[in-house]
């Protein structure tokens, strides 16, 4: 768990940042401000009192620490890591567990109050943080309130609401240069909020566009030192958000939102080398990874005496395509056309009495058509298919304050049913799953500065469905599997402690956990060149500790922070048929694709310079440990150093930013055809950022 990090978190603070009519700097007010979060779905709750492993990042903190994407954010979360990066719009993450790039995501992603789900392809939303109010991150299984796809945790992105009384605006421009790139990176973004009917109706428009120059070269044949094309992996990212907020009466609020994402990249992030970065044997083919996602949502909340009723409706449609050149003249292409309708209706208590509860139901109807083609010199394989799902769930949690609220037991339950089918043009393979998840929690809050809890919780991820070509490829490798895998389930036992000093100068968070996975879904090497598949690999146990330390030092404006995770993950049992094909992976062996450790150290400093001019800076060192590949080879650990230094005066801010200052190029995944880069960092990038905001 965590308290307000590094003195700049301002997510729904309960106290004013103004005293005597003068605005005070963040370091002067963080001792009295509370961060309020809504992850428990029972209304606002002070972060200090939430009995779970949770972090909150305000929009201002994200900017101060130069965190602009989900990929940047994971370095600040204990046990979080990027498992696979295909492109700017196709990235896969996990918390405390293994990663696979197919199947539903092992993490739940929520944009405000609605889910972002691409059926059977677990990419993260390509969200940018230009108009972000706060991000809440829940670590560990969250199956009770958030259902399927939350076996590792949940990311909740809260965007800014329209202001019902005043006009607001914000604008930002940035430019930078990446080592080895063929040009400059640049981006512009902005937001404006306008009240239409004062205190009743307002609209907000935000969005931006960015262009990143390519920094990897391409060789039509083998690497010879003279590239045939330079800077081929250039990327573009555009987004537009429209939101209307209606408050027809003091107890009713209706929020309608439209969000359009367009991430695009030439070639993909999986190169043949990390230093120098290049693609080889492309035969002049142009790889790409392009996405176009549209999300509509409508949320309504009505407050009654003693309870609130909330409805959240959304519809997601996407068009995502990739093409990957393969040696020597083949290619793999895939086009996804996902659709997902989601509806959740819930009611929660709002009384100040000892009994607190939330209950609700959800329904989802979606599909994930894929148009796949593998072209090789000796084969031309069409593996087009579609995954369809209709699922519903009922859920609830209840807690009761004992001893005046110092001891709080909680129990939660969710029952989920999924009718899922897989169609490949020749047949339709149905599969059904009914899963019950639960959470038990006992919290002890002896005073305002100490929270301790013990909990047991479960989560799950629906079974991957794969093409018949993948099934055939695994069968040739000696791994008999089916089109539909069994769901992956998780069970977590945890002890958490969060303490802060009376003056809020120190905050300490410790979480000890033991996470058990059943029927792990894992990528397995196939018997057809270029065609791998997935299997229920076995069961595993992950044991670890999360640490969070934040110190607002006696030196005015100087704050230090540390977050880290140390993890030991091993297989308890391995499918013997799979183990025969992958002999390096056996009971007692390390769990593949799971970090042994990660941590980040932050130094924040700000001070008044002169004439209302404030200087600020952030220096951060993040470490990502090694992990085991399916072939038994570990990737090497790597470190990244980043810095931000700037000045602000009134509404204006200017900063120099540097990412990956040491120009780290790891990690390296070892493949059958030589080293392949994985989710390693972008080479050293130096630039600037100019911002202006009304608040």
Kindly state the number of beta strands. 43
Which class best fits the helix and strand makeup? mainly beta
Average pLDDT taken over every residue: 86
What percent of residues are in strands?
Answer: over 45%
Low-confidence stretches: 1-32
Q: Your description of this structure?
A:
By secondary structure, the chain is mostly beta strands. Helix content is 5%, strand content 58%. The strands form eight sheets. It has a 22-stranded antiparallel β-barrel. A five-stranded mixed beta sheet has the order 5-10-11-8-9. It has a three-stranded mixed beta sheet with strand order 15-19-18, with no helix packed on it. Strand 6 (80-87) and strand 7 (90-95) form a beta hairpin. The protein is globular. The two termini are 29 Å apart. The model is unreliable at 1-32 (pLDDT under 50).
Which tags fit this structure?
5-stranded mixed sheet, mainly beta, 22-stranded antiparallel barrel, single chain, 6 helices, 695 residues
